[in-house]
Amino acid sequence: MKKKTIYIVIELKVREFVAKILFAYMACLRGYRVYVGSREAIIDLVKSKNFIGGIFFYKAGLQYENCKDVDKKINAHVVLDEEVCPGHNLDNYPNLINAFPSTTRRFISKYFYINNKIARFVKKKFSYEKNKIISSGWPRVDIFTKKFSKIFNSDVKKIKKKYKKYYLFVSDFAYITENYQQYALEYLPWGVNKNEHKRYKKLFIELAKYNYEDFKIISLFLKDFAFRNKSIKILIRGHPADNIDAWKNVINGIGNLKFLEPKDDIQPWIMASSGVLHRGCTTSLQAYVLGKPLAFLNLSIKNNYKDYLKKFTLKISKEIKNEKDLKEWMKLKYDNKFMQIVTKELNFPKDKLSCEKILDVLDKLEINKEERLILKNNKNIKLGMYFKHFYNIFKRKIFVLLVESKIIIRNIDRLYLYPKLSNGINKNEALYYLRQIDKNLDKKLNLTNYSNNLISFDNK
Question: Are residues 336 and 354 in the same domain?
Answer without folding.
Answer: no
